[in-house]
């Protein structure tokens, strides 16, 4: 058996970069071997390697690159190839940005930069990052500028957050413009026609009008196919777009969904580029079918209407465009006490109140000029001399379909005097209510505000200055979002969008900046109206701080309970290990070897119990390494039947009630078996006088409502329910059931980690565990696990069959393990199996061996190594030796949650502590190239 290891040289510090420099040869860098480097360079490198900030040193006129471990993580796959090489050759795009700055530094200046953009090449592609940096000169041994020292701080997250806010504001402005256009057209469909690409961007109302599926963008040809007259198509690349394009027009379509023929009114404007070429037509569309039908109906029924008007209680009249009446109904001249002839022409002006006549004539002229209906309120004199309020309305008419004929109008006068009196009473009441509201606005201790659709503050009450220090003058016109804590902007915008989508009120909690720069936590109630958002905010800063202190206190209490439980159980287990070992050592020293087996068995049993305790702790903390696969839940429970019956004993009846529709769950079968067994043992102990244990399964669908209530993702789940008829739990015990090391069993009869392990397993499996209990009735525990797709085969894993320890044929195994005891064990086992071994204590030391021409048939590596972890070592090894098999050992690694995500082809894993036979079997499988395993 052969072993290799390294020795310490300069730099005399830990870290990957230090190790790489120590291993530099004469040709690794143009500067030659490290022993010949200038002392100034070596001192600068020592300073840089011990720094926790990102630093890089560029030495000499060739800008030879050195950097520390912090910077190595930022430059991606350029590391370690860039180390000790000229930057001009290795990073030309970065040097192109910074070379001018570096030349200034070489002249003795210090250069700084803020949010500088750089491109780094990652395995998944180029990544754009931003940095603040400072570049300073480093003097060489002769006192001249020998290099440039750069200190960097990544600001990518801040820059991207600023960019996201700017983009969000841009989108808000665009939505605001569309909303204003829609409001100008009566809230109808909005469109933007991109002429160069024949593409429409539309609102949902536009899609509803044309009967097409709701989407934001589609080709203009979709609309052109719906035109009754193809000549009405929208302009595009294939048609001439200039001042002759009708921007306001009416045309007919045949709706896409039901084939109905509808009239559409379009109003638009052209947007041109700098050369005057139209590039965009934007505007609104409106379904005017009802208006068109009404106009046709009016034309067809004018004659009949005149006859009917004589019998109507309202006053009906017709007039020419100049406002002169040519006919009035009998009810009108009877109301006025005038003859028919007296009211014709301009005679009607004699019954209009003198104060209302000018307004009536002005509105009439506007209606005639625009063609819109005439609507006015004014006072008319009744035959008894009383002035009464009337609503006067008139519509234009075409004569016999001849659009060139003079416009005619038909009008009607309706007495609204009583309604006007009621309106006056209501207005007086509103004035009083407004005064009460203003008093509340001024006196409220809660802050109140109104915000317009642009997010700008329109009004605030005096409580703002008392609570946050801002005066009304400082706040009016200011964007509300700029007062928010940066971490609360996105959630607040999401709530505001829900209000825009029609939610009538909402509760929002966020932090607002005080004038002095501190923040206060506010709980808001917000209600939108047509143009403004009204909100009332209550200061809950003290309440939230109190809740945080309470949570911290509860957390510390839980940590104390957890550490106390671990100490208690581990002391017992360690005593069961160290005691037998000490007794065996004494007997061996006395030459007495008889009966040592019982001490070895006792120590091994305590070690297994310790391993089980660790697994339960990892399960509770959701850090165990799972092997999730589709598994048939019903078959798994059925296979446990005999084991469960033996565990429960004769006094407990076992009833398994599977639902055939349950299907397959996605999870770790071994962990599910352990969870069910734990629940069964708890149920047995809760039924000391006997009873029944029922294990049932079902398939459930968790919808959006249930998902929010259960804190689950919506979707399909398999449930496993374990129900007993035992003594049940009190509400106090039920509240602590999942707490680690909490147990109601006597001392020595339970660790208190059973339910904690079940909780951690379901949480890590993206599921849920619920517990219901009633004192004297029993307890039911239900596990939710994600349901596997029906297309994936499900099976219950069978344990591997036992076989003799395999022997090697002199293959070479490279072992990377930082724990000396584990390393010694593994090397001795491999040596006893007939393998030759090499070993190193960390990942960085393994790289030179992997790069050498030495024979290596298998890499065995711990996952949690200092510096480079085991997975990174394996990736480097695969880059140098593509076919090299890998076997990982892991006690706990925070990145190893599921083995399928962690392992690549030709990789296997074994958890610590492991059986020697299992380790030998996996070594043999790896050397035979049997592929990834999750043993």
Features:
29 helices, 935 residues, 6-stranded antiparallel β-sheet, single chain, disordered N terminus, Beta-Lactamase, 33 strands, 5-stranded antiparallel β-sheet, alpha+beta
The N- to C-terminal Cα distance equals 28 Å
CATH class of the largest domain: Alpha Beta
Report strand %. Answer: 25-35%
| Helix and strand composition category | alpha+beta
CATH topology name of the largest domain: Heat Shock Protein 90
The number of domains: 7
Query: In terms of per-residue confidence, which ranges show pLDDT below 50 for 5 or more consecutive residues?
Result: 1-7, 747-752, 795-802
Cα shape: extended
Order of strands, widest sheet: 8-7-6-11-10-9
- Helical fraction: 25-40%
CATH evolutionary superfamily of the largest domain: Histidine kinase-like ATPase, C-terminal domain
Summarize the topology.
Blueprint lengths: L15 H7 L16 H11 L4 E6 L4 E4 L1 H4 L14 H4 L1 H15 L4 E12 L2 E15 L5 E10 L1 H29 L4 E6 L4 E4 L1 H7 L6 E3 L1 H4 L23 E7 L6 E12 L5 E10 L1 H21 L5 E6 L4 E4 L1 H7 L3 H4 L10 H17 L3 E8 L5 E11 L10 E8 L1 H27 L3 E6 L4 E4 L2 H6 L3 H4 L13 H12 L5 E8 L5 E10 L3 E8 L1 H49 L6 H25 L8 E4 H7 L1 H8 L3 E6 L6 E4 L1 H17 L5 E12 L1 H7 L4 E10 L6 H5 L18 H11 L3 E7 L3 E9 L25 E5 L3 H13 L3 E5 L2 H9 L6 E5 L7 H11 L5 E5 L8 H4 L4 E5 L4 H12 L8
Helix pairs in contact: 17-18, 18-24, 21-24, 26-27
What does this structure look like?
With 935 residues, this protein is α+β, with helices and mostly antiparallel strands. It has seven domains: 16-154, PAS domain (Beta-Lactamase, 2-Layer Sandwich); 163-287, Beta-Lactamase (2-Layer Sandwich), CATH 3.30.450; 292-421, Beta-Lactamase; 445-539, Beta-Lactamase (2-Layer Sandwich); 550-618; 623-786, Heat Shock Protein 90 (2-Layer Sandwich); 812-927, Response regulator (Rossmann fold, 3-Layer(aba) Sandwich), CATH 3.40.50.2300. Helices cover 38% and strands 26% of the residues. It contains 29 helices and 33 strands. Strand 20 and strand 21 (532-539) form a beta hairpin. It is extended and about 145 Å long. Residues 247-300, 374-428 form the PAC domain.
């Amino acid at each position: 058996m052969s072993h290799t290891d390294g020795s310490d040289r300069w730099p005399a510090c830990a870290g990957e970069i230090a190790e790489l420099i120590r291993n530099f040869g004469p040709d690794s860098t143009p500067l030659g071997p490290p022993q010949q480097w200038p002392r100034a360079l070596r001192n600068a490198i020592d300073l840089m390697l011990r720094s926790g900030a990102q630093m890089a040193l560029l030495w000499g006129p060739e800008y030879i690159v050195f950097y520390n471990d912090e910077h190595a993580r930022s430059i991606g796959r350029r590391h370690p190839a860039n180390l000790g090489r000229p930057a001009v050759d290795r990073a030309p795009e970065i040097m192109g940005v910074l070379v001018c700055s570096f030349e200034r530094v070489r002249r003795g200046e210090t250069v700084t930069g803020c949010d500088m953009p750089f491109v780094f090449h990652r395995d998944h592609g180029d990544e754009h990052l931003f940095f603040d940096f400072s570049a300073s000169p480093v003097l060489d041994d002769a006192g001249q500028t020998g290099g440039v020292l750069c200190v960097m701080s990544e600001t990518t997250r801040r820059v991207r957050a600023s960019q996201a806010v700017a983009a969000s504001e841009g989108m808000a402005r665009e939505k605001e413009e569309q909303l204003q256009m829609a409001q100008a057209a009566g809230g109808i469909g909005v469109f933007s026609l991109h002429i160069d690409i024949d593409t429409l961007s539309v609102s949902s109302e536009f899609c509803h009008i044309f009967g097409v599926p709701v989407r934001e963008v589609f080709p203009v040809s979709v609309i052109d196919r719906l035109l009754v007259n193809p000549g009405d198509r929208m302009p595009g690349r294939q048609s001439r777009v200039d001042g002759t394009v009708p921007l306001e027009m009416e045309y007919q379509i045949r709706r896409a969904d039901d084939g109905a023929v509808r009239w559409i009114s379009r109003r638009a404007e052209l947007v041109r580029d700098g050369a005057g070429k139209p590039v965009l037509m934007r505007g609104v569309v409106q379904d005017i079918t009802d208006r068109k039908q009404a106009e046709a109906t009016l034309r067809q029924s004018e004659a009949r209407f005149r006859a009917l008007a004589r019998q109507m209680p309202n006053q009906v009249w017709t007039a020419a465009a100049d406002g002169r009446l040519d006919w009035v109904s009998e009810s009108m001249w009877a109301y006025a006490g005038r003859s028919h002839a007296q009211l014709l022409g301009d005679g009607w002006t004699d019954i209009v109140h003198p104060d209302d006549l000018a307004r009536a004539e002005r509105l009439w002229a506007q209606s005639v000029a625009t063609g819109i209906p005439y609507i006015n309120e004014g006072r008319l004199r009744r035959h008894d001399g009383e002035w009464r309020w009337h609503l006067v309305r008139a519509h234009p008419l075409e004569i016999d379909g001849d659009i060139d004929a003079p416009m005619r109008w038909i009008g009607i006068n309706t007495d609204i005097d009583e309604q006007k009196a009621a309106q006056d009473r209501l207005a007086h009441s509103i004035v009083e209510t407004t005064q009460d509201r203003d008093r509340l606005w001024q006196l409220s201790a809660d802050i109140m505000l109104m915000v317009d659709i642009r997010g700008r503050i329109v009004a605030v009450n005096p409580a703002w200055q008392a609570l946050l220090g801002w005066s009304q003058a400082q706040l009016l016109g200011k964007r509300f979002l700029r007062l928010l804590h940066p971490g609360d902007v996105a959630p607040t915008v999401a709530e505001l969008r829900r209000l825009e989508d029609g939610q009538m009120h909402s509760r929002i909690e966020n932090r607002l900046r005080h004038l002095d720069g501190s923040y206060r936590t506010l709980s808001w109630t917000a209600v939108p109206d047509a143009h403004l958002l009204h909100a009332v905010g209550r200061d809950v800063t003290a309440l939230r701080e109190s809740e945080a202190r309470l949570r911290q206190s509860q957390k510390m209490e839980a940590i104390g309970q957890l550490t106390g439980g671990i100490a208690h159980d581990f002391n017992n287990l360690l005593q069961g290990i160290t005691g037998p070992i000490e007794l065996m050592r004494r007997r061996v020293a006395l030459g007495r070897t008889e009966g040592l087996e019982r001490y070895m068995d006792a120590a091994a049993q305590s070690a297994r119990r310790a391993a089980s305790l660790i697994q339960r702790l990892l399960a509770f903390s959701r850090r165990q390494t799972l092997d999730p696969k589709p598994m048939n839940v019903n078959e798994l429970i059925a296979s446990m039947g005999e084991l469960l019956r033996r565990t429960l004993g004769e006094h407990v009846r076992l009833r398994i009630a599977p639902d055939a529709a349950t299907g397959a769950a996605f999870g770790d079968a071994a962990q599910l078996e352990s969870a069910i067994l734990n629940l069964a043992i708890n149920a047995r102990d809760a039924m000391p006088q006997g009873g029944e244990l029922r294990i049932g399964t079902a398939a459930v669908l968790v919808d959006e409502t249930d998902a929010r209530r259960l804190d689950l993702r919506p979707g399909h789940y398999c449930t496993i329910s374990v129900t007993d008829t035992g003594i049940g739990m009190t509400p106090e015990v039920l509240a602590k059931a999942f707490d680690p090391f909490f147990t109601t069993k006597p001392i020595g009869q339970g660790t208190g980690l059973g339910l904690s392990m079940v909780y951690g397993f379901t949480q890590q499996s993206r599921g849920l565990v619920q517990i219901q209990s009633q004192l004297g009735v029993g307890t039911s525990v239900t596990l939710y696990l994600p349901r596997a797709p029906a297309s994936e085969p499900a099976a219950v894993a069978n344990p591997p069959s036992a076989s003799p320890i395999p022997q090697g044929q002199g293959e070479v195994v490279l072992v990377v393990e930082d724990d000396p005891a584990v390393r010694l064990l593994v090397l001795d086992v491999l040596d006893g199996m007939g393998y030759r071994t090499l070993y190193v204590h960390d990942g960085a030391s393994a790289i030179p061996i992997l790069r050498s021409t030495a024979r290596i048939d298998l890499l065995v590596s711990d996952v949690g190594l200092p510096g480079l972890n085991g997975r990174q070592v394996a990736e480097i090894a695969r880059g140098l030796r593509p076919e090299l098999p890998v076997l990982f050992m892991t006690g706990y690694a925070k990145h190893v949650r599921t083995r399928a995500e962690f392992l690549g082809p030709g990789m296997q894993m074994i958890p610590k502590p492991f059986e020697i036979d299992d380790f030998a079997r996996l070594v043999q499988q790896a050397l035979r190239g049997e592929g990834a395993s999750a043993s």
